[in-house]
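Supplementary Methods. Inverse-folding protocol.

Structures were first reduced to a discrete structure-token string of length 581. This string, shown here, constituted the complete conditioning input.
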């Protein structure tokens, strides 16, 4: 059976201990055991060695089974304890199981012991795996999955801590925002894997030049933040920026290819340039834009830099017109039922066809809309258009479910419930065909308000999904309370799960957790056949990603579904002979 079973035996009778060993060895176990019979000896053994299982007599002259269980609990160790004892009465047996014992076996019925140990070892392994996954999720709540550096949430948390310790203007510190130029071109030319390696190398190089008390964070794709609590003067912050920029001038090596990058820093000082976390980060970004426009490596924030804001205002004004003039359009991406290999529904994704600038990515205009009152009319436009399309598909005999994204701002709106209800009535689409996807971070922005709104929407008959699950790390206790139907695992965990064991453990644990709560699981980022097959083996309900289909316009639906059926039919034949992953 491989490694010996490490057995700690609490027993005053050497003969009884030998009987247990003989039974386990008869069942094929290679046992490495130690026998103790006092509390002192038990504490010492627990401290000195890792144990797979503890077997304890219940009635001993100098040490009771109840005391043994208390010593184990006080140690904080997660080791299964099985009582092997004489008759103790039904009431006592029930009481000790409630107190935390894992099983009770009569000494005259030792044949039950080996199966009980096998069961407890399996369950202990599952608990360990879940614990590792939860620890990993908790780590990723405050760290970027690519660079493993602190993320925006941690950066914000540290800034807020520094601001809360402020005393009468005595504290001063610097915030530096770094952005890598032409990052989209790097992505498009070298691919996402290479750009991830580049970001990781940039992070390592910068971290090696900063003192331990400075915080370096990856705020978003190509943007890093530095919080330096010891810098009290802008001139010193400039020196730091110059040092870091000089370090970035040396080329980076990606698969033997040398790549040079360009970057700029924006610098904001507390309290000169802002007295809140949001204002300091925003003004650091504003200074960064000014530095890039001036073809300089850095700039310290100045109120004059805010004159660049009219560009954002102009884009917002055009977005308002775009909503009214129907310059927006939707593409749809299928969700595939992995067991039946069918398409039960699609996710609606908004696009903007600007009359002069062409197609504008939602990454550019949705954050702007969220900062203003435009996010509500934008969301309602998307929902109305998706419902109209859903109605058309119904009339064509295609009763597909459609998913629409909601933002944190939407959840905070007083009129959300009535507006959605009105759109459902006007389009005559059943609420059961509509799924609202809410990101985990949006839920955690205002948990109580989110729970109230989601509860009302759920009562209406809508399906609710938690999007990008794993990135925001809502507590498991909170997840139990949410009236949701589905969890969508963020693609950051799915895309590398075949080659990354940690990601695979996280995905497996999320699936098990969701199913234990009666929730369906959708995996984003299904980019190839191996990912799909592994998700099937793990019991994932649905998959979504470019392997199945890119987002497409409604007229392409029939052709795309036919292509997808052909793909899945071919993969079904392949999977019959494919080895288990």
């Amino acid at each position: 059976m491989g490694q010996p079973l490490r057995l700690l035996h609490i027993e005053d009778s050497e003969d009884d201990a030998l009987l247990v060993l003989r039974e386990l060895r008869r069942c094929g176990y290679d046992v490495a055991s130690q026998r103790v019979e006092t509390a002192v000896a038990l504490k010492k053994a627990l401290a000195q060695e890792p144990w797979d299982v503890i077997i304890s007599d219940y009635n001993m002259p100098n040490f009771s089974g109840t005391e043994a269980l208390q010593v184990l609990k006080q140690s904080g160790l997660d080791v299964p304890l099985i009582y092997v004892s004489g008759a103790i009465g039904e009431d006592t047996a029930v009481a000790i199981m409630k107190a935390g014992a894992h099983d009770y076996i009569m000494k005259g019925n030792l044949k039950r012991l080996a199966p009980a140990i096998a069961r407890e070892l399996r369950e202990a392994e599952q608990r360990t795996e879940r614990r590792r996954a939860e620890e990993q999720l908790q780590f990723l709540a405050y760290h970027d999955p690519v660079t493993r550096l602190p993320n925006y949430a941690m950066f914000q948390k540290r800034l807020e801590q520094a601001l809360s310790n402020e005393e009468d203007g005595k504290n001063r510190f610097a915030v530096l925002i770094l952005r890598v130029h032409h990052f989209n071109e790097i992505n498009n030319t070298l691919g996402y894997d290479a750009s991830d390696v580049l970001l990781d190398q940039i992070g390592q190089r910068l971290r090696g030049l900063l003192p331990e008390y400075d915080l370096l964070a990856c705020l978003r794709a190509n943007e890093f933040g530095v919080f330096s609590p010891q810098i009290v003067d802008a001139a010193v912050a400039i020196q730091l920026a110059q040092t870091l920029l000089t370090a970035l001038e040396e080329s980076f090596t990606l698969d033997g290819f040398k790549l040079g990058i360009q970057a700029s820093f924006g610098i904001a000082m507390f309290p000169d340039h802002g007295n809140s976390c949001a204002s300091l980060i925003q003004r650091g970004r504003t200074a960064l834009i000014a530095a890039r426009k001036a073809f300089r490596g850095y700039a310290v924030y100045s109120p004059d830099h805010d004159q660049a804001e009219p560009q954002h205002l102009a884009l917002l004004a055009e977005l308002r017109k775009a909503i009214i003039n129907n310059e927006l359009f939707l593409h749809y991406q299928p969700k595939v039922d992995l067991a039946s290999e069918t398409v039960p529904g699609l996710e609606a994704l908004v696009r903007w066809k600007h009359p002069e600038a062409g197609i504008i990515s939602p990454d550019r205009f949705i954050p702007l809309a969220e900062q203003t009152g435009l996010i509500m009319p934008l969301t309602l436009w998307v929902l109305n258009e998706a419902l109209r399309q859903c109605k058309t598909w119904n009339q064509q005999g295609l009763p597909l479910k459609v998913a629409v994204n909601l933002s944190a701002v939407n959840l905070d709106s007083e009129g959300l419930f009535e507006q959605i209800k009105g759109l459902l009535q006007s389009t005559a689409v059943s609420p059961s065909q509509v799924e609202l996807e809410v990101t985990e971070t949006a839920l955690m922005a205002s948990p109580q308000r989110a729970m109230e709104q989601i509860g009302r929407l759920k009562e209406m008959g809508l399906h609710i999904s938690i999007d990008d699950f794993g990135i925001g790390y809502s507590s498991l206790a909170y997840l139990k309370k949410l009236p949701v139907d589905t969890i969508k695992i963020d693609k950051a965990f799915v895309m590398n799960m075949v080659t990354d064991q940690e990601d695979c453990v996280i995905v497996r644990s999320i699936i098990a957790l969701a199913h234990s709560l009666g929730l369906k699981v959708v995996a984003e980022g299904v980019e190839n056949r191996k990912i799909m097959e592994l998700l099937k083996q793990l019991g994932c309900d649905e998959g979504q990603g470019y392997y199945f289909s890119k987002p497409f316009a409604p007229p392409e639906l029939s052709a795309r579904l036919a292509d997808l059926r052909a793909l899945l039919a071919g993969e079904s034949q392949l999977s019959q002979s494919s080895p288990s992953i």
